[in-house]
Amino acid sequence: MKKTLFVFAALVMLATSASAQFSNSKSSRASSDDSRGAIGVNVSLATGDIGTIGFGAKAQYRFIDQFRGEASFNYFLKKDYVSSWDVNLNFHYLIPVANSIKVYPLAGVTYKRVITDTEGAIEDALGDWYDLYRAYGYGSSSSFPSSSDSSNSTGKFGANLGAGVDFDLSDSWKLNFETKYQLISDYGQVVLTVGAAYKF
Question: Mean pLDDT in the chain?
């Protein structure tokens, strides 16, 4: 946790330093990118207690030269009977550091849904005894939970804090690297993301 906060603080300090360094020469450093919107896909690695690989999609819109909003959805693959998905709304403050490179701090909100496959966990734990458990584990087969009870899910709201960098490949395409910490009760995690987007 301390290492995560240290990395986040370092990224924010870097972005702040870059902003101050380049503010006086903004006209000479500003990107020639005139696009306002972008849509893209990304691959993520979550490092929390249920850390796993995720896949997602995002849509961005730049309201003014340095202020951008982003909406995204990510699905994280099942690990140890637990899968999850989240929806995010983040805001970026873009800081040009070269004609094709921008760094940004980010802040926003998230909603995370965690799904636990309880029946799968029971089946693996019991092995060959699982069929007997289905038939008699609750006294009778009729009292065994229905398929609708085979998993449970929990949803929670939280906050996102992090930083990222955009690399313009052309007038229409860019690459993106980002790290953020999701402050969610019981499910806090660092998420590392790499993605590509089409600009328009």
Answer: 81
3-state helix, strand, coil in the chain (%, to 5): 25, 55, 20
Give the span between the Cα atoms of 88 and 75, in whole angstroms: 12
Residue 98 has pLDDT above 50, yes or no: yes
> Rounded distance, CA 197 to CA 171, Å?
11
Tell me how far apart the terminal alpha carbons of the chain are, to the nearest angstrom. Answer: 38
Q: Which residues is 160 bridged to in the sheet? A: 108, 182
- The string of DSSP letters for 93-153 reads E-EEEETTEEEEEEEEEEEEEEEE-HHHHHHHHHGGGHHHHHHHTTSSGGGSPPGGGS-EE
Sorted by where each starts, the structural domains of the chain and their CATH numbers stand as 2-114+151-199 (2.40.160.20)
So what's the pLDDT on residue 54? 97
SS3 9: helix
pTM above 0.85, yes or no: no
Q: Are 171 and 199 in contact (CB under 8 A)?
A: yes
61 within 8 A of 71, measured Cβ to Cβ: no
Q: How far apart are CA 131 and CA 148, in angstroms?
A: 18
Cβ–Cβ < 8 Å for 77, 54: yes
